[in-house]
Known about the structure:
The complex is a heterodimer of chains A (286) and B (275).
Chain A: H1 2-93, H2 95-99, H3 115-147, H4 151-183, H5 191-199, H6 202-285
Chain B: H1 2-6, H2 9-92, H3 108-143, E1 150-153, E2 156-159, H4 181-206, H5 208-274
Antiparallel strand pairs in B: 1-2
Amino acid sequence: MSRLFLLRFSFLSIKNLVNTKLNLLVNLSIFVIIFALTASFISILFENRIEQLETKVTQNEVNQILYTKWLNRTPKIISQIDNVYQSRKDETLFSMIVTGLPDDDDDETSQIYSMREQFHNYYYFLSDIAQINFQNIDLALTDAILLSNSNEDIESVERQKILFRNLIIEFDRNSQERLVYRESHDFKEGWNKTQLHYKGYSVFVDKKIEIIQKQKDFFLNFGTEFFSKKRKSYSNDNITNLQEIKDFAKLETRFIFFAFVIQFVIFIVLQIFEITIERDRKNEKN
Amino acid sequence: MRRIKNVSNKIIILVILSGFFNLLSYCFDQLVIQAELKNRDLERRLVSNRISLETLSYEISTLNDLRFEIVKSTDYFHKHLPTNLYGAISFLGKDKNSEFSWQKIYDEKTAKKIGDNFLNNLNQLILDYNKKTDDIDKVFKSIFPEPVFYNRLLGKYYPIKELKINEKILNTFNTNVSEDEDEQYKRDSENYKIYTKIYESIREFKTLEYQFDYYLKRSERKYVIQFSDFFNFVDEYAKEQNKINYFILLSIIAQIMGILFILLLFKSIMINKNN
């Protein structure tokens, strides 16, 4: 009878042991699950912030198209303007020798290198160049507005817009004065007088040169400066954002590890409690 | 009867919750798949939009360069045409009635050499001009798919090739001066016709600038619109990316919750059994 009792007791003890182990396993699983849940929520919080930073990085990369275009294009435009001056200088280098040749009746005009070619044609050439530059300035200012991300930028672009508008007014006024001058001449007066009339275009040529010089100054001072400043600013932004993403990823790992440690401690404490209560209960039963 | 008694309300709720979260996890998985499909399409559009923006930017730069090239070349041709033409006539033609003669400054051989040089330059100018029209045509075709570029002038359309000058145009150009006034008048008229023809061709060539200007303005408008669209698109793309991340995380959470309730169910059954 006592043997049977002992047998029954040992069976109960095995059952108890299995139950305790199973219970521990279930608790451990629940702990792992709660830890996974916490990690997921922490991930959601951090991923949201990382995603915002990544969007900023992508947007900055889009801006890259704009400033890279103008950083490549501005020196080319400046060199085009310089070439205009240079070719004029080349052209006029020996012009005095040519115009001084006695190829016609007076010394003031020349048939080989006429005033029409010297001033009238050159005036139109400069006028076309100035118009192309105006178009480039307009494009550069549009892109500058698209790149602006501060009040300071907007104000700087606005200042340039005013200068641009004034330059167009100057250009139009010059063209208008040239038209009036043209109307004042009777082309039936003869070749020589017409040539002298063309000589009068030198005033308008000088004004156009002055306008083109201001356009060059725009590209030299504002164009290069603004777009290189933007490149620097956006590159720095990107570096900061990427660094922040890295930092967030690190912080996320630390947070998850920290959460794990806290939960593990809580789990251990709970297990101690559970075992103590279970033991007390058994002692009471016995 | 005893089995029915064992199934408590708590167990039923846990079973329902576990099933619900597993179903939710499945739903989020499906949403992830669908968002991924959409995202793939958005990624393709992101790349293609970026390429088209860069192409447009390249187009604008090329059109600007073409305009500059037209202006520069026209100025060059218009400047060289009268100088070379007049130079050739002046140095090669000997007008016996004129008080002035180049032979008073240069010896005959040198004067002829200078005159020939002007004539050669004139010939070369026509070749250069024709070559320039080909160059402009080629560059233009490299950016625009239109097979033939037309130049609009007074409401008419001309292919760019028609702007070319006949290379034999100078065959009838006569630099000699005739003593016969009628004959000289004929020669002068023919020479002037040649001059006018070349001059007009160059002038028409310059009108290409207006055509490029039209394309340029069209491209600029498109560029600004595409750029702002692209910015909005990047926002949409970022939102979609965010969505995927959220769906994945929510799916994981739902799965975890499902397992949690299964475990709680298991624990509950064990407690019931122990009791």
